[in-house]
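Aim 2, interim progress: modelling of the magnesium ion-bound target.
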Amino acid sequence: MGNYKIALIPGDGIGPEVISPAVDVLVALADKFGHSFTYIPLEAGGCAVDRYGKPLPEGVLETVRECHALLLGAVGGPKWDTLPGNRRPEQALLALRKGLGVFANLRPAILLPQLRDACPLKEAILAGPPADNSPKGRTGTAAGFDLLIVRELTGGLYFGRRGRSAGGNSAFDTETYSRKEIDRVLRVGFDAARRRRRKVTVVDKANVLESSRLWREVAKDVMQEYPDITTDFLYVDNAAMQLISSPGQFDVIITSNLFGDILSDEASVLTGSIGMLPSASLGPGGEAGSRFGIYEPIHGSAPDIANKDMANPLGTILSAAMMLRYSLGLEQEALTVERAVNAVLDSGLRTADIARRDKTTGGQNERLVGTGEMGAAVIRALN
Ligand code: IPM
Ligand code: MG
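Predicted structure of the complex, ligand included:
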């Protein structure tokens, strides 16, 4: 039995629609396990621009700091796309990440057997050839992939000096990384690999970029402390290609802010739907299970389907599971949520994004449901 404070930022577009079922799941779970969760709803993103004239209103950061974790829906939308850079909704996200010091962004991408048909890759690519480190028990067409991208989140190009010169006709953004910034995110990735299949791929562009050469240097030091982990290095262009030509080779990918942003979107589409994918952004460690974190689905605000009861809430529900694991230290509870999601998929329920596009190839036991019904089904499946 524990008392936990959870900040909620539903945000824009489908954000509120996916946060709501995720909170319902947490409420049911707290009840089941006898925990007390207090929810602190806050505004940030485009809705805050509309109401307060800025994406991250005064006091929000401070309030979140007093919580164990932040569960976030999504921010942004076309309505705010023409605002100057510092007033765009995305700025709230960047300021929260930086202000809360969540430097390690974990983005798992798993091909679930139930969604195999939704993966755009050919069966021959999914089936193999199995890499040496492929998940245990892989045989024949069962292979698929199960990888984790660890993206550096508070440094690099997204936070470097930027500006214009030559009277506005020239623009620059800078990639700066310190040894310390690289070292700490590498360790999060290597530690994660220890709980998985013990393989790390460090992705950089060390054939061109000086910052990447420092990444490699630091990685070669850190890997000495993880002799049980197989480490290799890939240039980002090659990694982008390998992700679609042989995704099964990857276990943990560790990379910079920019490269992680791009590769995680690429990986997400391989899973069949970006709507399924959770993420955790972790701050400096204390004990295992007590790191502050921001938890959010990676899909974004999807304004085109907002308020239509069409959004897939599973990415957010799975993000809440990651929160239970990493920030609240509630492993059993996290597993309970993950098992419930699995059971619901097994039972054939599908939101539009994960429904089989071609009904002639199967999917007889599938039933198309909306956001609310999917959330309710997960709650029923908690046991
Ligand atoms: C993400 C998003 C954000 C990022 C944007 C909205 C600033 O693309 O979380 O991947 O680039 O980090
Ligand atoms: Mg992105």
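Residues 136-140 have pLDDT under 50 and may be disordered. The radius of gyration is 20 Å.
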